[in-house]
Structures
1.
Amino acid sequence: MGIYCACVCIPCPEPHFSLYTSTRKDTAVHTRIIWSCDWSADNQYFVTSSRDKKVIVWGDCSSSETSVTPDEPPVIRPCSSILDVGDSATAVSFCPILCPGNSYLLAVGLESGQVLLYKWGPSEEPAGASDWTRYGETDSSYPLHTHTHTLVCMHARPTNTQSQAFITHFSF
């Protein structure tokens, strides 16, 4: 008696990865470990959340007037102001549905177990904090978990008249 497992391997090409940008310790935006990241539904932006309580949206933020040839890689840099969420940000997720006005809904999971909702929109001057709007949060009077790991995912479900976004919150 024993346990047997059969696997079928289908050959596929190796994935291709490219490094578009990097930072050094003395020029980094995050000062502690990055715990989570996610791509926007339109693949235009990448968001990171960290133990340093910061959430930052990254991307090719060059204006449309800047001429970039197809052979040149995009210039990836922070596209948002630095959002300080007040606690270690252990999870972050873009909503898979774009919001009106070229903006994005993001869920941020905190080490405390709380989940915050923010709307972010790209702006010409990300230095000001006007690109982030807080939309809501889970009830902090009722702890969602007693452990330090939070996983937040956002899902979309279209209805006949509108799209709805749902947050799935896992604690372990």
Note: The chain has one domain: 34-62+74-171.
2.
Amino acid sequence: MFKFCFVAKPYSPLIHSRVEIMKTTNDQISRFIYQIKNLEAQIAEVEERGELAVKDAQLRIRELEEALQRAKQDMALQVRQYQELMNIKLALDIEIATYRKLLEGEEDRYDDEFSSKNMPFNLDFKTFHDIGSLSFKSFCSRISQGRCVSF
């Protein structure tokens, strides 16, 4: 062993330099391994957060699709109700038009009968103008006495 040390002595600075290089390299490798482990942990954390974000987004999409389906069903119901109401309105409009025509026919018939009879008095614009100044009782008495020709 002594011989080995004696032979190695001239190479001692070289060996020492190689040992330092190996130490530095081992330290660098250790730092790189630590950085790799740290980066792998960060990647795993980001992947986990990404998966959670995707799951949350999928859940939100499902909720929105369900809400959209409910809104479509509600809208379809409202459209049906609106159509029913419009049908009822149309039927009522037709009924109102029918009664209006009947009423107009009755008015025409009444006007024909009223104008064909001999009236005991003549109502003109002056009569209607002057009627406003009379009391109802005096107006009725003038009609019953046949004095409505003019006031």
Note: The chain has a mean pLDDT of 80.
3.
Amino acid sequence: MNYYKSLVLFVVVFLFFTNNMYSVSAKNQPLSIEELYKKSGFKSDEALIREYEKKYRLKIGTPKKFPFIISDMFGKIDHTDKPPKLELAYINNKIPKDSLRIFIRPVLSKLQLREGDEIYHLKDGTKAIYRSNYGIAYVLEFQKNGVEYFIGIGKSTDKTITVNNLMEIAESIN
């Protein structure tokens, strides 16, 4: 059930950020992508990652490679799931369609295969599942060192995204 809650939340958040470019500020000017994220409870401070690590006694890795230029990283702790998950958004503020989301939480159970899923392995042998039927996003999930990572790139990007791009992102997380 948590998987479906996460799926719905991902879809809602993704649609909000990709389709909500018409929000305006008090001066009737369109809000910048940074203002939209901050208005939605995101923070641009990496201290949020350390806070989550400390609270859940985890060591969280963050990606170093991306399939497009990243200008900013925002994060927030989503308390709608149990345990709460850390949501990281990597964006290109000049091309809002180019965004990457990573949902992170402690491992609760083994990853479950669903229809259309494909199994891959990271270089260190970690099993990763490519969710080819995810709908609006290219998705890769894997569990490493007690942490579950859910990487998603919206299909609205103009870039051609392949499972290899997602695997490169996953491999760069340390």
Note: The mean pLDDT is 83.
